[in-house]
Amino acid sequence: MPLFFLIIVGFYYLQKIPTKIPAFTEPYRLVPEKISQSAVIKINLPPGIEKSYAKRNIKFEPGIKGIWIPEINVLGKIFNLALAKENTNILFFKPLQKLKLNRYYSVALNMPDGSVIKEEFLVVKDPQVIAVFPKEDSESPENTEITIVFNRPMVPLTNLEYLEAKAVPVEIYPQTEGRFKWISTNILQFIPKERLLRSTNYKVRIKPGLVSLDGLPVPPK
């Protein structure tokens, strides 16, 4: 059998072998790197640590007065995602006052073996829209897509495709057929079904009901 035929046959069968794409996993952190000023503090417990134990052995520095709130799945509450896909060994701590903006806080968990897990987080502004493109009063091509940028993560990275099909409380004027797509955790894009109308002023309205991953509502705009 000619050598080149063997190479072609081998290449053909290699294409038929299914390729397993590894699932995305985020690195473990006790708390997120950034937390909105008014948000609940989400604490991801290590495997094997009971919530009742953790509540007695967690310290904040500087100290934060607050309460442990009912153990709910924040992502599920916001997006109705399957709880099984998320880490369920989570605590939620609600500060009684807003945290100080641009300040670092640390969370320390004393482990049963005497070791300590400690992480810092930075307090940032509550969720809001920081930009809409194309900009107001600017001229754009008819095949332009409308992009909305938020200052905080709005959707989990692992569920972007799932959330593409979900209703988004954003209106485009004049009314335009199309679909919304999350292209990153904090960037939402509207893709028109047809070209935009020539010489027409478009407006984007953010309606109530848009909630960040912190569980905080985005102010209407």
> Considering DSSP H and I runs of 4 or more, what fraction of the residues is helical?
10-25%
Question: Which class of secondary structure composition applies to the elements?
Answer: alpha+beta
The main β sheet shows up as: 4 strands, mixed
Name the poorly predicted regions: 1-24, 78-85
What is the terminal-to-terminal distance?
70 Å
What spatial order of strands do you see in the largest sheet? 1-7-6-3
Total separate domains: 2
Can you tell me the CATH architecture of the largest domain?
Sandwich
Broad CATH class of the largest domain: Mainly Beta
> What gross morphology would you assign?
elongated
Given the structure, what is the number of helices? Answer: 4
- The CATH topology label of the largest domain is Immunoglobulin-like
- Provide the gyration radius in Å: 23 Å
The helix/strand series, from N terminus to C terminus, equals HEEHEEHEEEEEHEEEE
Q: Indicate the mean pLDDT.
A: 83
Count the strands? Answer: 13
Q: What share of the residues does DSSP label as strand, in percent?
A: 25-35%
Description of the structure:
- By secondary structure, this protein is α+β, with helices and mostly antiparallel strands.
- It folds into two domains: 34-124, Sandwich (Immunoglobulin-like); 129-206, Immunoglobulin-like.
- Helix content is 14%, strand content 30%.
- The chain has four helices and 13 strands.
- It has helices at 3-16, 51-56, 74-79, 160-164, and strands at residues 34-36, 41-44, 58-61, 66-68, 90-95, 104-110, 116-124, 129-133, 146-150, 170-173, 178-184, 187-192, 203-206.
- The strands form four sheets. The protein has a four-stranded mixed sheet.
- Strand 6 (104-110) and strand 7 (116-124) form a beta hairpin.
- The longest helix has 14 residues, at 3-16.
- It is elongated and about 70 Å long.
- It starts with a helix and ends in a 15-residue tail after the last strand.
